[in-house]
Predict the 3D structure of the following.
Amino acid sequence: MSTRGTLIWAALVASLASCERDAPTISREPEGARPQNATLLPVQAEEPFPALGCYQRARDRTMLTQHDAYLLCTGATSDAPIACYERAAAGLMLSSQAIVLCRCAESLAPIECYERAAQETTLTQPDIVALCSAASMQRLYPNCAPVR
């Protein structure tokens, strides 16, 4: 196993060990810890190339591969996809599902939708991800452009 593979494995084991075993939601904050208008808060100030900034920060702040960081940030208008991805990954969601859920996100709304659907419905996790994905909720093409 390569050094990077060993580091990734060690980080995964450490993160799994620190997770609460039966947490009911992805969020680790107690109920009410987040402001009620968390979905309306800007994640990143305007920058000239937001998708590039998102990609670079995804590579710096996450263990995403170059390709997965590209998938997450293509069409991004802020760092919201990264914030969403980090919350989803902290809840032990598969990385590929977190990317689908958070791609094109402009807030943490996909996470909040996911948490609510997981508590209030009997849908499967893949169905909830598809239903609550930012692209689905905002009716966007895969490049985050609006469907006309």
